User: Fold this.
Amino acid sequence: MSVNRELFDHVMVPNYSPSAVIPVRGQGSRVWDQNENELIDFAGGIAVSCLGHCHPNLVNALKTQGEKIWHLSNVMTNEPALRLAKKLVDNTFAEKVYFANSGAESNEAALKLARRWALDNYGAQKSQIIAFKQGFHGRTFFTVTVGGQAAYSDGFGPKPGDVVHAEYNDLESVKALINDNTCAVVMEPLQGEGGIVSPTDEFATGVRELCDQHNALLIYDEVQTGVGRTGDLYAYQGLNVTPDILTTAKALGGGFPIGAMLTTTDIAKHLKIGTHGSTYGGNPLACAVAEAAFDTVNDKAVLDGVKHREQLLKSGLNTINEKYNVFTQIRGKGLLIGAVLNDAYQGRAKEFLNAAMDQGLMSLVAGASIIRFTPSLVIPEEDIAEGLARFERAVANVVNG
Assistant:
């Protein structure tokens, strides 16, 4: 069978439009396609491949668990799930963990828990969920409705109700919406898909205080920011704000699908037996790989290294911008970085992405006017330098036509 990009159009639902390049193997922060062309990976599978490709710790965990037990369902528990849950609890504010398969499922569980907590404690009227414009929380119908981008939720019929959206980094807009019937405020501690937007300290603490005043839960969606991405194990730890519920996925498995919802014992008790579930959640293979990823990332040298690499990448991007004047700002935290295109290049982020691919660099976009970089947390410095050199050539090609 000939496996190529054309086969995609014949056999796959057309909701994606993938590149013509088909990677077949990877090592660290380098990838090779079907024709043995080498690419440097500044995309990380959208902040997923936190340790790059084929990291030996993850490969060994998968091989070892693969020879033990693969699946049980939640009729029984398993050792990898319990070990991983204990480590998540020991290293965060949380006391209880629920495992899922993705960020969307983790957020779905968080939203259902918040609604059930409010119903049990205050009554059916306390159901309002406040989220933020340009937010992103997944693609289930509930999570995509909570996400603040109507383009993703329109066109599928009636949406789940009692969901409203405030302006990110605008505390007054939250004050205008929140009331005693608000059950939860859902926010990313750094907006990813919405443009790599960091919260101000005043905004982050102000939202926490408003939730406390109105007996509402604060849910942090750390699907993209979690597991070392910002230089802290979880981004809330760098904001000095503690949420009531936290969701994590993407980097949690280092490339193996897994997600989790973390919360306190008092809140968790409202998901009684039968109220929620997942066939694959807590799968032994996924949890074994995630445990290895978590152990590797949860190391001071690795987390400090993220902050060091942040400075290397931002400095390199600023140097490129001094030559070509295409960005208004290089923003973000850790290795979740956005290069914001100026007025002359508005709406052309995809051109830069394609030009970078032509030069052998994998990158991302966050909207039409922001180029996003989410490389491995342990990307070698020489790969950063080479990746920046390739990106500079791409920028030059776009600028010079």
The chain has 15 helices and 15 strands. The chain has a mean pLDDT of 97.
